[in-house]
Structures are given as C-alpha cells and as structure tokens.
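Thanks for the sequence, V.! I ran Beta-glucosidase right away. Repeating your input here for the record:
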Amino acid sequence: MTTPAFPPGFLWGASTSSYQIEGALDADGRGPCVWDSFTAAGRIQDGSSAAIACDHYHRWPEDVALLKDAGFNAYRFSIAWPRVVPDGSGAVNQAGLDFYDRLVDGLLAAGIRPMACLYHWDLPQPLEDAGGWQGRGVIEPFAAYARACVRRLGDRVKDWMTLNEPNVVAIFGYGVGEHAPGHKLGADGILRALHHQNLAQGAALRALREEGPGLTLGTVLNLQPTVPDSDRPEDVAAAARWDAVWNRVSLDGVMRGTIPELLADRMAGFVLPGDTDLIRFPIDLLGINYYSRSTMKHEAGRPFDVGWGEARCRRWTGMAWPVQPEGLYDLLVELKRDYGNPACYVAENGCAYDDVVSPDGAIHDAERVLFYREHLESVAQALADGCNVKGYLCWSLLDNFEWAFGLSKRFGIVRVDYDTLVRTPKDSYRFLSQVARTGMLGG
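Predicted structure:
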C-alpha cells in the first residue's frame, strides 16, 4: 500500500470549545448560560462541573505552545457568547473580548491560523428564559453578537464559523432532554430548534459579510451517513426520516435554501415566507464533524418514530460509538457528488477511550492512534478522488468537560490531570504531529 500524501497548505490542527475547556465561569463579567443551569440542576452524570475544566482561561499560553510544538497550523476555538454579551442581547462586555484578543494574538505569534466559532452550545440563560431556540427572539441577538466579535477580532481572525452541530443542540437539548437546556419537547421541539438556529445563522452570516467582505465564512455541521438497520420497509423509511432531521435540515438549508420534503408539512406551522431565502447563504468553507455512521430503525414512541439500530463494525470507542472510518470517505464523496464539491474541512474527528497512565507517566493510546490513522486514510482517499478537502482538525486538543458525561470521558490528544491541571501529550499527539509536519501517514 502506498503512503497517502496530503497537499501543501493543508490545515492541520485541533478543535476545542469554550465551555469545555475555559473554566473561569464567574470571571470578568461573564454571564450564566444554559449549561451552568443544567449542571446546577444535578444533570451531569459524574457530578462534576466546568467551573475549572482545563483552566484554559488562565493557561491558554501553555495550550498555544502545545499546538505550536505539534507543528499544527490551525486551531478552531469557540467564543463564549455569555462572556461577550452576558445577558445575550444587551451591552457588550469588553473584558470578555479581551480574553480572545490575547488568545488570537498568541496564536498568530505562534504561526497558527485562528478559526473562530461563534456558538458551541453556551446559550446565555436569559435568552433561554425568553424561549431560546424555540422562537425567533434569538435571531437578532445572535447577529448582534456576531457583529461585536468580528468588529473586535476581524482584523486578525479571517475564518468565522457560526454554529457548531445545530442538530445536536436541537435533538438532545430540546427533543429528548439529555443536554442543556434539558427540554423534552419531542419532534416539534427538535424541528423548531433546527429552524431557528438556521435563521439565526443566516442573519449572523450576513452581519459578518457586511463587517468583513474578505472574511472566510462558514458553519460546522455534524454529518453522519445514515443507513437502515434492516431492509424492512419500516426501517428504510425510519432511516430516511432521520437523515432528513439529522443531516438535511441544516445542510440543505444553508447550501440550497430548501427544507427536506419529508419534513415540510411538519414544519409548515413555523416556517414563514422568506425564511428559506434568509437561511441560504454562499459560505466559503464548510466544517464537518464526523464520528460514525447512523444505523437507524423504526421505533414507535420516539421522536419521528426512529431509534438506534445495531451498527456493523469491528470496534467501539469508550463512548460506545462505532468506529467506521469508511463513513468519512462516503460523506466527503457525497458532498462532491451532490453538493457541488464545496471547500470543506474536517472540523472534528476523534474518540474517547479510558486512557491508562504508564508507570513512566506516558499515555500509550494505541486505540486512538489507530482511529486517527484509519480516518486520515479515508481523507487521503477522498482527496485522491477529487474531494475539495482543505484540512483536518482533531477533536480534541485537551481532555475536557464532556457535556452531560462531565470529566469522565477523555477525547484529548493531551491528557489533563484534573487535580493538578498538568498537561501530558499522548502518543496520539505525537502521531498527529508527525503527520502534520510531513504531510504523510508513514508506514
């Protein structure tokens, strides 16, 4: 087998999110968000919180040094909406933006391309109290927040992503209640949250373009090729419905300005004339988060009468997610075939495992190394077949607060000791460093 090569200028790096790593939740005027409330309600499985997390707010120079030492040239981070606009829709907190000023300057000094994401799930609690993503009241505040960020940082940050995984926010936050804000509103709540995120994104993209005509604009979607659990007609139909909800509302909205035909009747009550025109926007760069395929079956009583089927794979991660690197290739080829081969990059791809610290203090995470190798082989094959892939960013730089799982799941290529906050690069860090420096996967 020949060794796959990646082109010059390919983006190599890591992604993180503000709530999962920053800590300092009461620092410098930050306001409360839905995950603060969800945690306070005792909804985190291991009883932990993000109050300290990785303390990135104070230790960011150390984390930038880790990126630089790895030879990475890109870093996708998220800006905390409640740091910048503490109540979500009022005055801008300049002290909150000061932190991102420092971070951006540090990244640029290290030769690392800052890629800012405006919303990675930390909705300011006052906006949720007013209806959150169930209504239109969040649209203009999100656009105003986007303007405030780009006016402060747009002279140095050229890559702006609007949302991260709106499908996860809608399904797990508003549909089944497993994520903040913890609502169990079923199918209607899911579709409303998807649609209003789409509308807010459209407004924010237009605000960003007005402020910075030369900026690179995009969004980040969690996309999963969806397959039926069996060839029974009811399972095939269930998989089609899930594909429409999980993938197409967000993807077809921004790329085509359309609503999936399977969902049009269900969404007719809250989709107003002109909505799809606002949602559609010619983005420059599509971020793709990929973890696995979705294997779905008919299951009455669940939203959309869809449940999880049995994935066909050889291995599973520590999250009990299937390892299916071939699905990433299929996804990239589909974007080329059906969506005009848009410029895209892998914005998240990674895995949690129960890492073991060796007696010498090292973390030999061979399963994670294999995971990355196989997924990079899929990216290399997609590139060879003409897919317009611009980069690969792993999830994640650091072990962090894994949402409702708390601190119990470790996705990082760098271990964080939550007692001492000491960072220790794992074997996976060294593997990705070697690929980033050479553009080759090696033997």
